[in-house]
Amino acid sequence: MSAVAKNAHVWERDELDWYVEPERCTRQLLARERFMGPIWDPACGGGNIVLALLACGHQAKGTDIVRRVGAQETWFHGERDFLKMIHPVAGNIVCNPPFFRAKGAEAFIRKAHELAWGKIAMFLDIRFLAGADRATGLYQDLPPSRIWIVTPRASCPPGQYLMDGGKAGHGSSDWCWVVWDKTAPAPAFPALGWLTAEDEVAS
Fold it and tell me: Does residue 64 contact residue 43 with C-beta atoms inside 8 Å?
């Protein structure tokens, strides 16, 4: 089903919650977070996160529940249902997870902790930080290390809308990177900071 813009900032909802962040959001993250070892994006979509990582010199790969890229993209490692994987397979995971009213994002975060042994960075709607159930559940079970608020606002339209020739406009939602550093002791409280245009790592 094609995604169509309802107005300047609202689109029909993608059935798989495939929404595309600009590559600059990943480059901003890399200005503040150092990743050692390979990085995996298990919901890579068209590959914006993986391509930004590769351009900045990282060893990176992507998988997704469906293929959205051509066969020539050697960084794509196949169609995989991330939530059904059972063995540790990655040093680091960097991902814009399918949100599904926060349930999808939380499921991805918990699964990432089962499969990664380095850093986990999730690109999330900033409202995800405010859920009362997560305050007494997810964030107590898995305290984040750092939260990076993305500025300026990023426009994240449905991937199908972009594939159909649509263009991202000005962002109207707020986004953040939430980072769990499994190589360091869990903090009592996460550090909070802002990513600005000046933070963007050049590829």
Answer: yes
How many C-beta neighbours within 10 Å does residue 169 have?
12
79 within some domain: yes
Q: What's the CA gap between 26 and 51, in Å, rounded?
A: 9
pLDDT band at 89 (very low <50, low <70, confident <90, very high): confident
Tell me the CATH number at 168: 3.40.50.150
Amino acid at the residue 180: W
Bridge partners of 175? 125
For residue range 7-35, what is the model confidence (pLDDT) as tens digits? 444 545 556 667 889 999 999 999 999 99
Q: Residue 169 corresponds to which tokens in the numbers above?
A: 């406009």
Structure tokens at 35: 């990743």
pLDDT band at 2 (very low <50, low <70, confident <90, very high): very low
CA distance 86 to 94: 18
Instruction: State how many domains the chain has.
Output: 1
Residue 93, SS3? strand
Whether cis (ω within 30° of 0) applies to the bond prior to 152 is yes
- CA angle 169/61/36 to nearest 5° reads 100
Tell me, yes or no, whether 131 lies in a domain: yes
> What residues pair up with 19 in beta bridges, in sequence order?
158
Contact 41, 60 (CB under 8 A): yes
Domain containing residue 91: 25-197
Q: Do 31 and 200 contact (CB within 8 A), yes or no?
A: yes
